[in-house]
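Two entries, shown back to back:
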Amino acid sequence: MNSKTIFGIIGAVIALVLIVIVAVISIRNGLIARDEGVKAAWSQIDTQLQRRADLIPNLVNTVKGYAKHEEKIFTEVANARSRLIGAQGPEAKAQAGAQLSNALGRLMAIAENYPDLKANQNFLRLQDELAGTENRISVARVRYNETVRDFNATIRKFPGSMFAPGLGLKSAEYFQPPEGSAAVQKPPVVEF
């Protein structure tokens, strides 16, 4: 072999090694970016769930002023709120969120019995904020589940499946409503 051929083979091997290195780095970075995307999308849901939990004491206090004898529902709402704040992970948050929605629905039903409360500007503002937050949670849940779907598909498909275990990446959990009767319940709707 002449020196030109040897240099050509060495150049081709070096180019091939560089291409493989760039591909490995690109795949690895892509997996990490998708994993971070799942975390960021979950953070959006968590933020909206926290916002809802923060609005509830104000709503309860407003209703309390009008419905002093309805103590049981206030306790249920407070307990459901505490469970939501303490829940960890999508499944636990979904179950706690369903319990909170159920308790809020009963609270809103009680509010129906008090015409002065229904006209109270603070109550109306809080109710609107709560409804807006429910919509934000719904949008964030859709975005999160889409991000989880893309991430899970990426780590299951080749070549992601080769790298995911080495990076400690596992399938992310979808944010779904809990099974059973709570799964078919909708956010509380109050009509005036």
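entry 2 starts here
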Amino acid sequence: MFLKQGAFFNGMTDKKEEEKIKALFLKERTILEDSNEARLLYDQSRFGTILEDSKLQISLIETMYLLEKGKIQLFDSKQKEIPTEKFMKKAEALEPNFYVRYSIFKDLRNRGYIVKTAMKFGADFRVYDRGVKPGEDHAKWVVFPVHETSSLTWHEFSAKNRVAHSTRKRLLIGCVDEEGDVTYWEIRWLRP
């Protein structure tokens, strides 16, 4: 056995510790360094959007997810590192419903779905079936995250259903409980 960088190396394949992508937090978005790893995040998992200068821009929710997964190292404009807990507080201050939305995003991503924003559809997220990437086919669901203690009027509920129906997507209500567990309800129009 050989000693290599403070760890034992037994001649088997040397697993290089995965390099974190450097990211710059700019108020309501995050810009990743222009690198092969950042492009892979987009190409393979469809995180963020590619900007004109070829850099990858990710949302607050994607930033939190990638921080928790250890994929990025986040810095502020003064090049000071922002730890995960501090970023969560900043994100919650910027988006009042951040925790609930993030819980849904994280759960769906961990289940293997690609999740993108759906603001132009009047929903929080659009979700692609497993194995489908945006641009290859349309999203299957629009998702509205709610906390278990929140309530909707019948008018609000009907409006959410109309949004899904008019965009030819299925409606998912993602409900987050006090422990952070998520339950989904799929709602569809039925003709008797």
